[in-house]
Amino acid sequence: MLLAGSVALHVAQQRVSLAPARTDTWFARLRPSPLVRLVLFALRCLGAAFGLDLQGHQRAGLTPASNAWSASVGALLGWQDFHVAVLVLMALFVCARQAAGKLLPNARASIDNTAVLWHYVTLLGLVGMAVIYVMPLV
């Protein structure tokens, strides 16, 4: 899920390079563009991945107050949750800029910065899951 969201955001980022400036009315911009759909799909993938990971740890009975391992897992999930919340805000900002017609090939810093953080959070999630699932086996 994390990788699918990261790929979707990368494709959305490439769409900005190819898209001409929008000249339609503000009412027509309210319909979601393919770029907005890709960003929202990436957001759903990110939320689903985090939700499944959190649910798995809750079902395992990990409570941060009970032992150090549960507290470490809770801290990693909290760190990931913070970044997911930041990405939600950034993705919504990118969607708003696209709807306003301000996301252009020569004014694309918002989606580029979002993509950098998005790929970092994907890597953070994958490494975090690897540590959580592999460490008890060692």
SSE order and pairing:
Layout: H1 2-18, H2 26-29, H3 34-59, H4 68-99, H5 109-134
Helix pairs in contact: 1-3, 1-5, 3-4, 4-5
Core attributes:
138 residues; mainly alpha; 5 helices; 76% helix; 0% strand; elongated
Task: Describe the 3D structure.
The chain has five helices and no strands. It is an all-alpha fold and 138 residues long. The longest helix is centred in the middle third of the chain and has 32 residues.
Unreliable stretches covering 5 or more consecutive residues: none
Sketch the major β-sheet. none
| Quaternary status | single chain
For the record, give the distance between the C-alpha atoms at the N and C termini, rounded to a whole number.
26 Å
Instruction: Indicate the structural class.
Output: mainly alpha
Helix content: over 70%
% residues in beta strands: under 5%
Average pLDDT metric = 88
Give the SSE order as H and E letters. HHHHH
Number of discrete helical segments: 5
- Count of DSSP E strands? 0
- What Rg, in angstroms, do the CA atoms define? 18 Å
Which of globular, elongated, flat, extended, rod-shaped describes the shape? Answer: elongated
